[in-house]
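Researcher: Good morning. I'm working through a list of sequences from a screen, and I'd like to move beyond sequence-only analysis. For each chain I'm collecting a predicted structure so we can compare shapes side by side. This is the next one on the list. No need for commentary yet; just the structure.
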Amino acid sequence: MTYITVRQSPMYHQMTLEEFLFQDNARDVLLNDNTTNTRTYEVPFLTEYMERKFRFDIHHLVEKLREFNDATASLRSVPRHSLYEEFYIPKRSGGLRRIDAPCPELMDALRRLKTIFEEDFRALYHTAAFAYVKKRSTIDAVKRHQANESRWYAKYDLHNFFGSTTLDFMIRQFSMVYPFSEVVKSEDGLLQLTTALELATLDGGLPQGTPISPLITNIMMIPIDYKLSNKLRNFEKQRFVYTRYADDFLVSSRYDFSYREIEKLMVDTLQEFGAPFSINTKKTRYGSTAGSNWNLGVLVNADNEITVGHQKKRQFKAMLTSYVLDRRNGTAWDKHDIQIMEGLRSYYRMVEKDTIDEIVSKIGTKFGVDIPALIKEDLRAEP
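Model: Good morning. C-alpha cells for this chain:
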C-alpha cells in the first residue's frame, strides 16, 4: 500500500481521492477554518494519472538527496558521538530526559535535509498528529476531543519512541509514504535516502535534540496514524476520536469503553507494521470528565471546558500579586523569573483566555497598575 497525504482545504468537506484528483462532485460546504488539517489516502498502487497530478520529478528528488549526501560526506567520516553534546533535562512526569545536541556543522546539515523533505518532497503529517507541526499545540489536540463532546478518555504512552526508531524501520515506513515510495523503487534512490536518513541517527535510533527527528517521526507514523484513525472511527460499534502528540496517544468517546481493548488494537497495529517501539502499559490511564481528567497538561472538566485547573490559577494569582507588591516595594525580580511568569500567562491564555485576562485585570485594578505593561517594561530593561 502507498499512503498519499495532502493538505485538506478547510473550505470543503473531506474529499475522496477521486474528488481530489478529478474534482468530481465537489461540494461547496464549509468544513472548518483550520488550515493545518491534512487528508491521507491509502491506495494499492499509483496510476499514471496520479503521478501526473502530483507532478513530482522523482529523478530530481534522488539528485537532491545525492547532492546532500555528497556535501555531508565529511560528517560521516568521524565518530558520530563526536558530533553531539549530551545533556539532560527534567521530564514533566519525573526523571530526566536525555538530549543530544548536534554540533553546528551537523545541525546545519540536518536543517538542510529537513528543508529538502519539506520543500522538495512536500512531506506532511497525518491529521491526527499534533506535535512538531506549525500552528498546532497540545491544546489543539485536546480541542479535537472536546469538539466531539467526549466524556471518556484513555491515554497511551509509547516506550522509548525516539531511541527505538531504527533506520530499517524508517526506511520501511518511508517506502509506503508518497513520494518517498517512488524514490526507493530504484536501487540508487533507496541508497541515497538510506544514506541521508542514516546521518540523522545516533546509537541505532533517533536522537532527541535535532531539527529533523520530529519530522521523521511524523512521516514514518503516517501509515500507523491512518490505520488507527480509521479503525477507531467505528470500533466495536462505537465512534472514537484519536490524536497523537509525539509518543502520547489520546483516544476518547462520548461513552464508557474498554480501554484495554483499545490498547490491544494499538499493540496489534504496531506489530502489523513491525514497529520497534511498544505501548508502555504501566503509563496507560483511563478516566472521565467527571473526575480528574488531565491530558497533555490540561484538564477537560464536566462542562466540556478545557482549563489549566484551579490550583494552577491560584498559584498564578499569587505569583502576580507577589510580583506587583515586590515591585511597589522596590524589590526587583530577576528577569528570568519574570520570563517564567510571562510564559505561564501566555500559555494559560491559550487555554482559557478570558479567565486569565480577567485575573490579570482584577489584580491590576486592585493595585492600580497595568500588569502587562509592567512586565514588558521590566523585560526590556537593561540588566
